[in-house]
Design a protein that fits this description.
Order of helices and strands: EEHHHEHHE
Helix content: 55-70%
Shape: elongated
Number of helices: 5
CATH class of the domain at 22-75 and 111-176: Mainly Alpha
CATH architecture of the domain at 22-75 and 111-176: Up-down Bundle
Oligomer: single chain
Strand content: 5-15%
Largest sheet: 2 strands, antiparallel
C-alpha cells in the first residue's frame, strides 16, 4: 500500500493539528508553524550554498530545531500527544557561534543593506523570515500557551542570521553596502 500526500481533508479551508483538532488554514497557529517551515526551507537553501562545513553543520542543527518548533506549534494544545522539546543549550550554541564570528568582523558603525552576494542575501532572507516567524509565534503566545524557549530561540536565531550574513560577506570578500540617508528636501 502506498501513501498518498493528498488527503482532500483541507479542501474546505481547514487543516488538522497533531492530536486531531481541525482549524482554519489562516489561524495564527497555522501562520506560526507555516512561517517556521518557510524559514526552514530558506535555511536549507542557505546551507546548500555555504561551503564551510562548520557553518553547514550549524545550519543543519538549526533546521532540526526549526522542525521541532514546527511540531510543537502544530500540536493541538488540548491533546496529550507528546512532541520533542528544543535541544537544551541550542541558544547558547547560537550565542557562541555569533561571538566567534563577531570576533572576526569590523565593528558595525552604520546600518547595512542586504546584498553584495547571493549567499549574503540568502542569509538576510533567513533573518527577515525568522523575524516574521517570531512575530507570528508571539501573536500566538498572546492567546495560547507557547513554550517560552521557542520565542527565545527565534529571537536569537534572527541575530545569528544577521551576524552570519556579515561573516559570509567577509569570507567572500564582499564589501558591506552601507545605508545612505537622504537629506529631506
Amino acid at each position: 500500500m502506498s501513501f498518498k500526500i493528498y488527503t482532500k481533508t483541507g479542501d474546505k479551508g481547514t487543516t488538522g493539528l497533531f492530536g486531531g483538532a481541525r482549524v482554519s488554514k489562516h489561524a495564527i497557529r497555522i501562520e506560526a508553524y507555516g512561517t517556521t517551515d518557510e524559514l526552514n526551507s530558506h535555511t536549507g537553501l542557505l546551507r546548500d550554498q555555504v561551503e564551510k562545513e562548520e557553518i553547514r553543520s550549524a545550519l543543519l542543527a538549526v533546521q532540526h530545531e526549526l522542525f521541532v518548533i514546527g511540531s510543537n506549534l502544530a500540536k493541538d494544545p488540548d491533546s496529550d500527544l507528546t512532541v520533542p522539546a528544543l535541544e537544551s543549550g541550542i541558544v547558547t550554541s547560537l550565542e557562541e557561534a555569533m561571538d566567534k564570528m563577531d570576533n572576526e568582523l569590523a565593528p558595525l558603525k552604520s546600518f547595512i543593506l542586504p546584498g553584495g552576494h547571493p549567499i549574503v542575501s540568502q542569509a538576510h532572507i533567513c533573518r527577515v523570515v525568522c523575524r516574521r516567524a517570531e512575530r507570528r509565534v508571539v501573536a500566538l503566545a498572546e492567546t495560547e500557551v507557547v513554550p517560552e524557549e521557542i520565542v527565545i530561540f527565534l529571537n536569537r536565531l534572527s541575530d545569528y542570521f544577521f551576524v552570519l550574513a556579515r561573516y559570509l560577506g567577509k569570507t567572500l570578500e564582499v564589501e558591506e553596502i552601507k545605508w545612505q540617508a537622504k537629506s529631506p528636501e
